[in-house]
Amino acid sequence: MILDAQGIEMSYGALKVLHGVSLQVSESETFAIIGPNGAGKSTLFKVLTGERMTSAGTVRYRGEDLTKLPAFRRARIGFGRTFQVARIFGEVDLMTNVVISIEARLRYSGQSPGAWWRWTPAADVRLEAEEILERFGFPRSRWSDDAQYLSHGDRKRLEFCIALATRPDILMLDEPMAGMSPSDRKEMTKLLMRLKAETGITIVMTEHDMDIIFEMADRLMVLSYGEVIAIGDPEKVRDDPTVRKVYLGQGYQHA
Ligand SMILES: Nc1ncnc2c1ncn2[C@@H]1O[C@H](COP(=O)(O)OP(=O)(O)OP(=O)(O)O)[C@@H](O)[C@H]1O
């Protein structure tokens, strides 16, 4: 078990949005959290990643209690996070964005990323950054492009590169393909599935596009009004009468 959340409760003022939500994610699993708009998916995500603190319940990562640990401390122990809105350094080029992330990882793990006054990354750091950029479809000719001029889809891809440079054991993806064109979505789905096959990384994701969910997820959890109404493999969840009722009228395409 890599991630184990039990009895998560969360309120915004008087509005209670999570009512005792529990979930368990196994190593190398792709686990999707779905549900209608306002069901509490993003809020649950924030609790899992440490952006918000739960008012009750526990979050454990490989047995370690993270419940009160803020997001940046979780990132150091193997949590990778990409955000709905890409957080990249717009003023510098693609290569530098990835290099910064690798150097931060090395610094946290007590390794020296090289002398800061030299302004050029160590050869192995640069090589690693090149591999990541190539893996996510940025050819050499684009490495020195300014990040601020990227298209939305490319920003998202760079965001993945930055997250992967931290060498996470678990990737937390909150609507990773939101706002992407259908062809970018297809390409990103392929990239993520390849990444998973090659590295065995665990993925926890929310996503509105059911085609992507059914292609990628090993298991799904359905939230409705902050409660878990179904959990299991995609076929079982798709055929669940309660889930069908919740999605009635919305269709499975856009949950
Ligand atoms: N910062 C906030 N302050 C007050 N209420 C909030 C806040 N964020 C979310 N909510 C409310 O909490 C509930 C759950 O919201 P949340 O964003 O977690 O749902 P969601 O399932 O991710 O929705 P969507 O699919 O639209 O992204 C909603 O009723 C929402 O209006």
TrEMBL record:
Superkingdom of origin organism: Bacteria
A single MF term (Gene Ontology): ATP binding
Domain ABC transporter intervals: 3-250
Signal sequence coordinates: none
InterPro entries: AAA+_ATPase, ABC_AA/LPS_Transport, ABC_transporter-like_ATP-bd, ABC_transporter-like_CS, BCA_ABC_TP_C, P-loop_NTPase
Family as reported in the entry's similarity comment: Belongs to the ABC transporter superfamily.
Protein name per Swiss-Prot or TrEMBL: ABC transporter ATP-binding protein
Organism from which the protein derives: Microvirga puerhi
